[in-house]
Amino acid sequence: MYLTRRAEFSAAHTLFNPELSRDENERLFGKCGNPQGHGHNYVLEVTVKGTIDTKTGFFINAETLKVIIDREIVDLVDHKNINLEIDYFREHVATCENMAKWIWGRLQNKIEGCTLHRVKLFETANNCVEYFGDENEGPR
Amino acid sequence: MYLTRRAEFSAAHTLFNPELSRDENERLFGKCGNPQGHGHNYVLEVTVKGTIDTKTGFFINAETLKVIIDREIVDLVDHKNINLEIDYFREHVATCENMAKWIWGRLQNKIEGCTLHRVKLFETANNCVEYFGDENEGPR
Amino acid sequence: MYLTRRAEFSAAHTLFNPELSRDENERLFGKCGNPQGHGHNYVLEVTVKGTIDTKTGFFINAETLKVIIDREIVDLVDHKNINLEIDYFREHVATCENMAKWIWGRLQNKIEGCTLHRVKLFETANNCVEYFGDENEGPR
Amino acid sequence: MYLTRRAEFSAAHTLFNPELSRDENERLFGKCGNPQGHGHNYVLEVTVKGTIDTKTGFFINAETLKVIIDREIVDLVDHKNINLEIDYFREHVATCENMAKWIWGRLQNKIEGCTLHRVKLFETANNCVEYFGDENEGPR
Amino acid sequence: MYLTRRAEFSAAHTLFNPELSRDENERLFGKCGNPQGHGHNYVLEVTVKGTIDTKTGFFINAETLKVIIDREIVDLVDHKNINLEIDYFREHVATCENMAKWIWGRLQNKIEGCTLHRVKLFETANNCVEYFGDENEGPR
Amino acid sequence: MYLTRRAEFSAAHTLFNPELSRDENERLFGKCGNPQGHGHNYVLEVTVKGTIDTKTGFFINAETLKVIIDREIVDLVDHKNINLEIDYFREHVATCENMAKWIWGRLQNKIEGCTLHRVKLFETANNCVEYFGDENEGPR
After folding, report:
1. What is the pTM (predicted TM-score) of this model?
2. Is residue D138 included in any domain, yes or no?
């Protein structure tokens, strides 16, 4: 049984790798690499996996999961500039892919009674990424 | 090849385990355990798996699947009080998780020519569960 | 200039007029009149009208409007049974239309610095009502 | 007859009035005034009003309207920092309300054969503003 | 008080005026004028205006309105080719604008106890038209 | 890590197998087999699988994937009649299932640096199919 909880946050970011030249950045990231930054309403879906407890009819209270997601993720990035205000993104390009990995890393050990299964992050309605932990495992 | 059919129904429910004290219920279920009940527009997605028949170009007519879902599920729960009007939920807490299991159980042997793969049930736009049958199998 | 703020709540209701016979109720309300109740995820949109203040760039802070909507409406109806827990609906049929009027009545004098313009209430994705205050005026 | 065309753009902004103290800004704008900026996927709906031409069955080609919206608005703000890259917002707080006025001003004289009726701008799914031109007129 | 009911239908159409040359058609309609036709999932919203009846709490049953919309509109156009199967569109270009007028004409005298206020028709998520009856009146 | 890119196209189609009698077609396809055709706004989601490149923070630029999807799929089917204008559907019934296979076939060798994982195609909001390549493999 899988439970998914959805959250939203609004943040600014830009795609820029300081180890590369300005030309190389522009070639790789196009308008997404505008150094002044741009922004998104991100949609985050966190999926956990567990077995139903007969007493409660669930394995984790969706409200409990919401509290964890808010505390570990939303409160840190909502109405923030990701490049400037999250340390991880000083050393990693602030792509949706790297954000999904960062979210996985922060949530992985915070959820009790069930297992983190998937982090899905929408940058826009047209683009999203999914991460299932170890990339070599290929869970799906 | 997987086909998914979406349906909606509006129902009242409450989360309450009669074997537990009122305090214990309140601690476990919070505002979701209000004994007067509350309600949702549930969204149900049923996914079946099969192999395309060259003659028809599909393995089950989406309209046939719709008829089964309406007859087995929607007609029983739409504009109903799930706790009071579905026997199964006299003995099982009416969580989204248990509803997904009940839906799986009702659909499993009703679909011909293909296999039930997944039941996905949204309680709100922010919460959904997915069930793939035997929980120990872990299909995804 | 008009500002619209959106909110959601989950509630149970039924359509039933105690002054009418059971047959008359069934004829008028069909499955919506099931006495056990059913429920919805309601979506509420509140629109206010005002003139931009040069200093702030708005006429009411959207967050202030949110706080008023939550306190006056959402906290009273979310995860509640509207028929049993809101006094107004002991004497008024709990239709979407009457709920919009009740919402208008509660919000009308609570909003400062601008004017309540419209209350829009979705019962499902397929049905909604709009109320602009005095029905005889024909505001739109 | 009214035609509405929808567009999207992703941009960073912050709410900050340089003529006010930092404390005053924080009191007025809360987390929206984070000086590092944050961002949104804005949704813009432009409505024009006209009379159907019998020959074409429309009064403006929706594609023509799209081209105007892209050239006059989307190309200027998409993947941009509104505060830093649009001159108008050096002197006006970059609220959704002021953005709607700026959009109205840019579109008003660019549309031929019909009249600009409304600019509707969503900052998130929960917040939007509507502008109909002269605020004193109160068209709706 | 306004009530809106939403419906959907899937239909093929093309934009073509037989009184014009092929070049003129192509210039006017671009890819929308492909003579082989293309198609859409149209979304139709019908808004009616009335005064609440104290006995029922509404002025028209949303289900009654649904039945009228299905009988007068959806049953005629769903899974049809609008140009070939609706007589009106042999003499009128099958634009969204003309379809809204045709829908208005068919519904206008079929609704009892309230007044047809608006027909809103979405061709895609990005394009919609609204019609309020007599275009000269300027109802909104 | 999985990246999904969403696209839309509007097309006409009908379900008809020329090797079967008209009665047999009608029995199999119902209103979807109307020989005049009907249409949809299709939504296509293409998912690719890869490993993040440290330099760029992604494994394929979402814009690159968009260009491939537009060139290989959208440009061929948008505002087209699928049955009449795509050769493949002269010999295959134009179901959503066969369309997903055709899309898979066209994309499979066009994507560099990562692997095509899934093609998901929505015919309407209520019906979609998913294809993962070889049907016997059953990846999910």
Report:
1. 0.94
2. no
